[in-house]
Amino acid sequence: MSFISGESRWADVALATSARGFATCGQFLTATTLTLSLQTSGAGGSAVAGMLLAATLPLVALAPLTGRLADRVDSRVLLVGAGLAQSAICLALAYAGHPLLVVGLVALLASGLAVAQPVLAALVPAMVRATDLPRATALNQTAGMLGVLTGPALAGFLVGGFGTRVPLLIAAVGYLALVVAGLLVRTRRGGAPRVAATGGGPSMGADAVERDGDWRLRRDPLLVAMVATLAGVIAAIGAINVIEVFYVRETLGASASVYGLVTGAWTLGVLCGAWIFARVAGRLTDDGALVQGGLLLLGGCCVAVLLSVTVPTAALLVPLWLLGGLCNGGDNVFHNLVVARRVPEAARGRAFAAVGASVQGAAMVGYLLGGLLLELTEPRPLIVGCGVAGLLVLLGFVVPVRRAVRTERSRAGRIPTPVERAGPAGAGPPEAGSSGAGLATSTASG
Questions:
Q1: What angle do CA 44, 445, 78 make, to 5 degrees?
Q2: How far apart are CA 297 and CA 288, in angstroms?
Q3: Are 240 and 442 in contact (CB under 8 A)?
Q4: What is the spatial distance between Cα 355 and Cα 360, in angstroms, rounded to a whole number?
Q5: Dist. CA 423–CA 420, nearest whole Å
Q6: What are the residue boundaries of the Major facilitator superfamily (MFS) profile domain, all occurrences included (predicted)?
Q7: How far apart are CA 362 and CA 339, in angstroms?
Q8: Which residues make Cβ contacts (< 8 Å) with residue 185, sequence separation at least 6?
C-alpha cells in the first residue's frame, strides 16, 4: 500500500532508526534509573507500578490524538517539538525531588513519546520499497533494541556509581536525537497532500485519500485478531515488569549492575530475533501466516517467563531471557510488517498509534496486577502465574485467529473484479496483506 516506487532511501532509514535508538536509550535509562531509585529507597511494588503507569497512561489516553497528529501534521515539526520537550522534561527530572513531581514529569515525558512513536513508525514504510520493508523493519527494531539494551545496563552501572542525577542528564541528551532526525530526514509525511507526494508513489487522488481517512482497525478482522492476541498476552504477563526488579534484586540477591545486565539479555534476544525473522518474513506474502507465526512466537515468550522461576541465581536468567527475547523480536517484525502492508499510507500514523495504545493499555493491566499482588505474596509464585496465564490466553485465541486467517484466505482466493484489480485511484496494485511496543516494552523494561 503506497510504498516508495523508486530506490529505497536508506540514508533516511539510518537517520530515523538512529534517532529511535538514542531516544529509546534515553527512555529506558530514565525508567530503569527511577525504578532502581524507588527500590533502593524501600518503596514497594505499588510505588513501582505507579511510576510505570505514569509512563504508560499517556500512550493509551493520547493515542487517538497523536495518531491523527502523525497523519495530519508535518513529521518534521512533530519530531523536533517532541525531542526538545522530552529533553527539557528529562532535565527537570534530574533535579526533581518530590515523588508527585517525579510522577507528573514521567507522565509528561510519556506524552512526548506518544507523539514521536507513531511518527517514526509511519515514516519508515514511506522510505522504502515494499520488498525492502522487512529489512527496514529489522533495522528499526535493531536501533530500538540497542537503545533498550543499553539503557538498563547504563542505568545499573551509573546509579551504582553516581546516583540518579547523572543518568537522567545523559538521557536528556539522548532525546535530542529526535531533533536531529527531524531536521535531516528528507522523507516527510503529515496531511493528505504531503502523504501522497512523499510516499514515493503516484498521487492517490482526493477520493482515495478520503477512503484512507475512513480507515478503522475494527474493519480488518485479521488485524483485530492479531492485536487482541498481542494485547491479551501482554496483559497476562505484563506484571513481570513490576515483579522483575524485586525477583532479581531480592529473591535472587543480585546487584544493581547484574539487574541491568539481566534485563538487557531479553533485549539482546529481541535484537537477534529481529534479524533472524526478518529473513523469514521477507519470504511470506501471506499475512495469515505471519499472524499465526506470531502466535507461536508469543508462546515462546510465555515459556521463557515460566521457566525463569526454576533458576537458583540471576546469571542463569540470561539464557532464558535471550530465548524469550528472540521470540519477542520475531513477533515484533511480523506484526509491524502486517500493519504496514494492510493499512493505507495516509492512515498509518493512526494505525501504529492504535496498535500501540492497545499494547500499552494491556501493559497497564499487568502493572496494576503486579503492584497489587506483590503486596500479598512473593515474586516467584507471581512469575509462575504470569507464565501460565500467558499460555492460557494464547490457547484461548487459537480458534479466533485461525477463523480470521481462513476468512482472509477465502477472500483473497476469489477472482477480483476489474475495479478491484485496478485498486484505488492511482494507488497501483494491492499489496499482499506494523513498544510497541511489542513485548519488549512489557517484559524487558524493568
A1: 120
A2: 14
A3: yes
A4: 9
A5: 5
A6: 1-189, 221-446
A7: 19
A8: 12, 15, 16, 75, 76, 79, 123
Question: Which residue in this structure is represented by grid cell 518530590?
Answer: 98
Domain hosting 213: range is 10-443
Write down the pTM of the prediction. Answer: 0.68
Q: How many domains does the chain have?
A: 1
CA 175/CA 27 separation, integer angstroms: 8
Residue 1 in any domain: the answer is no
Residue 4, in any domain of the structure: no
C-alpha cell at 216: 478503522
∠ CA 320-326-34, nearest 5°, is: 70
What is the residue-level pLDDT of the chain in tens, covering all 446 positions? 455 556 888 899 999 989 888 888 888 888 888 877 776 766 666 677 677 778 778 878 888 888 888 888 998 999 999 999 999 999 998 888 777 788 888 889 989 988 988 888 888 888 888 788 888 878 887 887 777 778 877 888 888 778 888 889 999 988 999 999 999 998 888 754 443 333 433 333 333 344 445 677 788 888 998 999 999 998 888 888 778 888 998 888 888 778 878 877 887 888 888 888 888 887 777 888 899 999 999 999 999 999 999 999 988 999 999 999 899 889 988 988 888 888 888 888 888 888 888 887 888 788 778 878 887 888 899 999 999 999 999 999 999 899 888 888 887 664 443 333 333 333 333 233 333 333 454 333 33
Q: Which CATH number belongs to the domain containing residue 173 in this structure?
A: 1.20.1250.20
At 311, list the grid cell.
533458576
Question: Has residue 2 been placed in a domain?
Answer: no
C-alpha torsion 428→429→433→434, nearest 10: -20
